[in-house]
Amino acid sequence: MSTQTYFSRRHVGMAVAASAMLCGGVALAQAPAKAVAAPVKSAAPAPGTVVNLNQTVKIAWLDPLSGLMAAVGTNQLKSFQFLAERFSQKNKAGVKFEIIGIDNKLSPQETTNALKSAIDQGARYVVQGNGSGPALAIIDALSKYNERNPGKEVVYLNYAAVDPDLTNSKCDYWHFRLDADTSMKMEALTAFIKDQPEIKKVYLINQNYSHGQQVSKFAKLNLATKRADIQIVGDDLHPLAQVRDFAPYVAKIKQSGADSVITGNWGSDLTLLIKAANEAGLNTVKFYTYYGGVSGTPTAMGAASAGRVYQVSYNHYNMGGDIQQVMADFKKKFNDDMYTGAVYHAFMLLTEAMAQAKSTEPAVVAKTMEGLRFKSFNGDVEMRKTDHQLQQGLYIDRWEKAGGKYPYDAENTGYTFVPVKYYEPYVASTPTSCQMKRPA
Q1: Phi/psi zone of residue 201: left (φ > 0), alpha (ψ -120 to 50 degrees), beta?
Q2: How far apart are CA 73 and CA 248, in angstroms?
Q3: Separate counts of helices (H) and strands (E) for the chain
Q4: Ranges 42-46, 90-94, 194-198: which has the least confidence
Q5: Which of 240, 280, 287, 415 has its CA 20 to 30 A from that of 140?
Q6: Could you say which architecture CATH assigns to the domain 183-317+412-423?
Q7: Which residues share a beta bridge with 127?
Q8: Phi, psi at residue 164, to the nearest 5°?
Q9: Which residues contact 347 (CB under 8 A, 6 or more apart)?
């Protein structure tokens, strides 16, 4: 991710939101803040009322279905299709959803072409998440398109592209981010690492594009502030979705004497890194990841990584409630894990906003989504108006044998991610430099 000015993590504007949360910062992993009813706008229907708009909303999904990251894209497309069907059966807005899947080949240029195709097919909402380069291509293209086509606006819901710049220097009115950005996740991760005295030497390994560069940057900044005694003993950047053998990188990690690795790698780049580490017998080093639950990585971890791999995320495999049933039904249908909880957030945000706005028109819905609060699987969440960055609680999870309170069997390995810490939204929230330009 491109460089942004780093501020302190306490955002003054979060004070109001924080007052609606539990105090104290850290709660038990299974005890998110109790729901606080969001204020209802005067024009909104009574809570729970269905507004029967009786319309079909087309959503274009633009992400990779080819190349090394195809497994991730395929899983997420199925997740959107599955939840579109589920939310179409019952939602506050009384609308139906149709998903148009288009392969963007993880390329910004292909993404621009895919976006044009989506608009030509009648999509007024687009979703994308894999890669901040494609995300920026969508933001730039829609900013120009919407300005030239008043009344035909298109809204972009970003469910996984986490470059902080996308809601800072490059923020745009038509872009809404549902994932926690790289800096937010690093705030939570280093808050956890700070309290692990056995961590002395950290190795950084990341993909050489904006996200990986930002993981490296924020890891160094946060550790210097919170645990100045920790040594950074390595800092590698490698090509995105091109490395097939991570053995040379693992050898460097081993030689460095690192006791811990921090990585923002995802998809094949994390799967192959973990696989190489296990094959090399790197069984005393802990891995602190952003995307340990993504397709292929649970299988690579297996029993060999139990107790050693951690993940910072807004969800985990054993959330309980409706999302747990969704995951169970998804696995029954596809024999696959639905790990991208932001897909659920996308439909929650849209249906809540459409019900309040009594409209599916993107310009009206976008305005309603600003500042919208709703209760989700990870507590109370809010789409921050100043930059369109979702504010939400984050978990630190550890890879362990499934069973008892945490029975979900990830990729049929017999293992699962178990929550060990839950951080309230204000703990990981970072301020924004966004100067939002709103339509006249």
Answers
A1: beta
A2: 28
A3: 13, 16
A4: 42-46
A5: 240
A6: 3-Layer(aba) Sandwich (3.40)
A7: 61, 157
A8: -55, -30
A9: 83, 84, 87, 91, 97
Q: Tokens representing 30?
A: 């299974």
Encode burial over 214-251: b for 16+ CB neighbours within 10 A, e otherwise.
bbbbbbbebbeeebeebebbbebebebbebeebeebbe
Contact 416, 318 (CB under 8 A): yes
Separation between Cα atoms, residue 171 and residue 401, nearest integer Å: 41
Same fold across 12-181+322-394 and 183-317+412-423: yes
Q: Tokens at residue 225, please?
A: 């502030």
Q: Give the pLDDT of residue 195.
A: 98
The pLDDT tens digits for 246-278 are 999 999 999 999 999 999 999 999 999 999 999
Task: Give the global pTM.
Answer: 0.87
The C-alpha atoms of residue 365 and residue 92 are separated, in whole angstroms, by 14
Q: Measured between alpha carbons, how far is 258 from 287 in angstroms, rounded to an integer?
A: 10
d(CA 74, CA 337): 12
pLDDT, average across residues 414-430: 97
Kindly report, residue by residue over 15-29, the tens digit of the pLDDT.
333 333 333 333 333
Whole-angstrom distance, CA of residue 113 vs CA of residue 104: 8
Query: By CB neighbour count within 10 A (0-12 exposed, 13-18 middle, 19+ buried), where does 147 fall?
Result: exposed
CA distances for 337 relative to 18, 180, 296, 418, angstroms: 32, 20, 10, 15
Pairing of strands 201-207, 309-313: unpaired
pLDDT tens digits, residue range 316-363? 999 999 999 999 999 999 999 999 999 999 999 999 999 999 999 999
| Closest CA relative to residue 424, chosen from 395, 388, 390 | 395
Tokens 């692990």 found at: 196
CATH code 3.40.50.2300 for 12-181+322-394: yes
Place of tokens 């100045």: 228
| Boundaries of every domain in the chain | 12-181+322-394, 183-317+412-423
What lies within 8 Å, CB to CB, of 365 at 6+ separation is 155, 350, 353, 354, 357, 359
